């Protein structure tokens, strides 16, 4: 599982990612506690609004950032965005009103919307081998999950000695360390491709989603992922501190339980994905989260029961999100990959934009039990749609015809040749293949 770390460029990027994630995790805990200070039992409403702003920034900025940055130096772009995020994090301890939270987090989220897709799209270029890339995806998920565990644990320890506002300093340090490791990473040069018009670069990833069945299924499962995650991220502080009357540290440990369940799934996924399809793993995770959400109103009646429920939720969450990179890689060429990752980033966060306000508003206006049930319904819709839309039989190489090409066109010699102008090869939507085989259009 750890063999990708032998690649120096990937190793530096991985350390940069871990550093930024560790700091971000502490900020997540501190932001929850700040919201509770500002609004008490209605903290979920502030968190839901702040996270909705995050989703709006991600949806609106990611495709434009990808299109604008297509010709920018990768290293300069990533380092600049890390430094912007560090500056915002350093300012967070000095705020005391909800509107200030919203303003500063908007800047942070816009920078992250530009950073994350560019970062993710580089990994397939660094690790072209499918097996190594699969391991790298699990390492990335493991890093995210370790942040979910390590950051709350570290926050719980630090909160015994310092106020939660000081946790934001750890976020700034994390982004600073991330920038240093990006500077020292040997990144692959962008392969030359014919320049495309700006509008085509802006919409190219969305077009891949529209015409690729597995990507439409992936988007449906993203809705299930958002429904489960929103319940945890928005309402943990409400359940732990308002319902159970426990401490800041107890909130941190509950978030760590969710991360622990996700880590467990990430450790086993490389082996599981050798035996099962991405579709089966992701729909299974969505189904598991649906069941956990349905059980929530009757199970989450005590702190120990909530910890167990969050472990199950974390396991299902990781199953839905970790294999996504494999589906994206299979569905794009190297030239289209940055646009596709940006589109995935924007579209998946559109799902979070639905789920976050639902989690916050139903918790604030009714009770967390109502939020459990509404989000269970949303999760179930995503799981069922993903199962139906993503074809059960989904090979890489698909037979198809090119009636628009001459019989001696060099493209027809690629892959396995059939009768006439038919052949088979790994199929992605591009200038030669504008529709999925056997789909109307």
UniProtKB/TrEMBL annotation:
Q: Where is the signal peptide?
A: none
* Keywords associated with the record: Cell membrane, Membrane, Transmembrane, Transmembrane helix
Give the UniProt subcellular location, in the record's own words.
Cell membrane
Spans traversing the lipid bilayer: 12-34, 46-70, 101-121, 142-162, 168-194, 215-240, 252-273, 280-301, 307-328, 340-364, 370-390
Q: Where is the composition biased (Basic and acidic residues)?
A: 400-412, 428-441
Q: Which CDD domains match?
A: MFS_MefA_like (cd06173)
Say if the entry is tagged with keyword Kinase: no
> Which segments carry the region annotation Disordered?
400-441
Question: Membrane topology type, per the record?
Answer: Multi-pass membrane protein
Q: Which domain of life is it from?
A: Bacteria
Kindly provide the name given to this protein in its UniProt entry. MFS transporter
Source organism of this protein record: Brevundimonas fontaquae
């Amino acid at each position: 599982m750890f063999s990708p770390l032998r690649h120096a460029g990937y190793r530096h990027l991985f350390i940069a990612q871990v550093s930024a994630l560790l700091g971000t995790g502490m900020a997540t805990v501190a932001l929850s506690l700040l919201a509770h200070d500002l609004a008490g039992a209605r903290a979920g409403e502030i968190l839901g609004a702040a996270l909705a702003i995050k989703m709006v920034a991600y949806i609106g900025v990611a495709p434009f950032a990808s299109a604008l940055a297509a010709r920018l130096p990768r290293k300069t772009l990533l380092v600049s965005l890390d430094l912007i995020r560090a500056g915002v994090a350093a300012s967070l301890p000095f705020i005391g009103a909800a509107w200030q939270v919203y303003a500063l987090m908007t800047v942070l989220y816009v920078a992250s919307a530009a950073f994350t897709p560019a970062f993710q799209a580089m990994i397939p270029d660094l690790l072209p081998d499918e097996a190594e890339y699969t391991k790298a995806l699990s390492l990335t998920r493991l890093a995210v999950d370790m942040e979910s565990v390590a950051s709350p644990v570290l926050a719980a320890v630090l909160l015994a000695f310092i106020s939660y506002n000081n946790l934001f300093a750890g976020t700034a340090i994390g982004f600073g360390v991330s920038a240093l490791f990006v500077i020292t990473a040997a990144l692959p040069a962008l392969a030359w491709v014919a320049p495309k018009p700006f509008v085509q670069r802006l919409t190219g990833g969305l077009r891949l989603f529209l015409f690729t069945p597995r990507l439409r299924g992936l988007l449906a499962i993203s809705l299930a992922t958002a429904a489960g995650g929103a319940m945890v991220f928005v309402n943990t502080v409400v359940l732990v501190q308002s319902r159970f009357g426990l401490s800041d540290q107890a909130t941190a440990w509950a978030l760590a339980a969710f991360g622990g369940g996700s880590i467990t799934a990430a450790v086993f996924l490389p082996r599981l994905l050798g035996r099962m399809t991405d579709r089966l793993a992701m729909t299974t995770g969505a189904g598991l989260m649906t069941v956990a959400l349905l059980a929530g109103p009757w199970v989450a009646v005590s702190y120990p029961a909530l910890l167990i429920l969050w472990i199950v939720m974390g396991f299902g969450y990781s199953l839905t999100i970790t294999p996504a990179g494999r589906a994206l890689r299979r569905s794009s060429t190297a030239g289209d990959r940055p646009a596709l990752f940006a589109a995935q980033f924007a579209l998946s966060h559109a799902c979070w934009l639905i789920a976050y306000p639902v989690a916050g508003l139903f918790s604030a206006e009714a009770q967390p039990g109502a939020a459990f049930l509404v989000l269970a319904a949303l999760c179930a819709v995503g799981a069922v749609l993903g199962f139906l839309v993503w074809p059960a039989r989904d090979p890489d190489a698909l037979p198809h015809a090119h009636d628009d090409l001459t019989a001696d066109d060099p493209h027809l010699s690629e892959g396995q040749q059939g009768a006439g102008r038919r052949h088979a090869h790994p199929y992605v939507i591009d200038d030669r293949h504008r529709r999925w085989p056997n789909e109307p259009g």
